[in-house]
Write a structure and sequence with these properties.
Number of strands: 17
Largest sheet: 7 strands, mixed
Bound molecules: pyridoxal-5'-phosphate
Strand content: 5-15%
CATH topology of the largest domain: Aspartate Aminotransferase, domain 2
Length: 486
Amino acid sequence: MMKRIDPIQINWKPAKNKVIPVYKQIIQYVCDRVASGEWVIGARLPSQRTMAKLFNVNRSTISIAIDELTSYGIISGKSGAGTQIVSNTWALMLPTKPSWKKLISSGYFQENNYRLQQINQLEFEPNIARLGTGELDLRLFPQKMWTEVLQKMSTEITSWGYAEPLGILELREAIVEHMRQFGINVSTENILVTSGALQALQLIASCMLKEGSTVFTEAPTYLKSLQMFQSAGLKLNGITMDHDGLEYWKIKNQIKNSESSILYTIPTNQNPTGITMSDIRRKELMDFCIKNRLPIIEDGAYQELCFDNDQFKPLKSIDDNGMVMYLGSASKTLAPGLRIGWVIASKPVIQRLGDAKMQMDYGASSLSQLVFAEFLKSGKYSSYLVDLKKTLKKRRDNALECLTKYFSQLATWNKPIGGFYIWLTFNESIEVDDIFERALKKKILLNPGDIYDFKHNRSIRISFAYLECDEFKESIKKLALLLMDK
Ligand SMILES: Cc1ncc(COP(=O)(O)O)c(C=O)c1O
């Protein structure tokens, strides 16, 4: 996909009373914009006449400046609006500010996919219907509970120091208790509190996997939408799924060296497909990983959102051999703004990750840790979750009804047992990129499947968690009409 180039904006004028000639000031101004990365290669300058107006100088002054910039090789094209920035290297040799453009692309951490950058911005546009977003409807915020918890905190907290390296003990104790209902029986030394599950992934990528290692994962997967593993020089290898989850046997021929391979999986309410791995597949997968000495990162971000019951126990609950590192998060159930997640693993792993975390941020926010501990200990979290699951289930059922009504002829989809997502695959060779742009004009924001996949696809990730039933229906109807009006 071509990256859009923002049009050049000029809101500066040369100072006519300076010793430096005006045309030189203009040259310097252009060089500064190019060297700082504000004006990128390919950006077009306004016509000479417009520039003369904007700079409040004669056309002849502009002409001299343009000639000189052309001779440096910074711009090309003589006149009209055809003059473009063609190089930023010469500009660096001129006395100017540091090249932020060059510096910001020098680090090892890769940029987000362009479409994701765009979505991250568009999510904050007013009145936009976020049809694929990975966040709970903000209107489901349990205001009364928050008030109670925060009021209690305000009288109980007497100081704000740094927290212990693995996270505040009170929270780790509450997490230990909380995880028992999912069949995970561990002690506080097996838990590291992180700033969201994302940080746990970051810690694992940077502490435990060496460059060139292979990370097997579902295809499509949330991990593909992040650049952190790729930035660490890790190779992602996408393995297809069926209705029961990851087709783990396909990994077999691809494991070159189990010492430098790991599996990342979201077995429950997978992001982006909504698929939940069956119990039989979980057992088989564990056996396969034990046999092949393949460690597992189990992402349980949506584990607590099974609508009917919790029969799908985490892999960690059947992990007798210590193969699994489990990631939990408060983001999908309660509040992503808390930035609280946790890792459950063997003590040496927790110690290593905890040590790295101390070097990174010296602990997750103490306020967030204490707030989440209070939610867990008071029983408020559990009772809130019962209501939340009821609401989400209603929204899922409404979403499936809407899809049957408006998309039966256009697409296929799955029925998730929980979580946020439905994976919608268009029948015909519909270009999702094209639909994205057209939907955007109707104020509907989509999450194209390509963001999460290893190959081009015809799918989008639908979320029923963000919009109310009526809003969802309206957006789905608009989208169907738009598709039929190809
Ligand atoms: C599967 C999965 N893991 C982790 C995260 C990130 O969670 P957190 O907000 O706890 O960093 C997300 C968020 O979309 C997710 O979908």
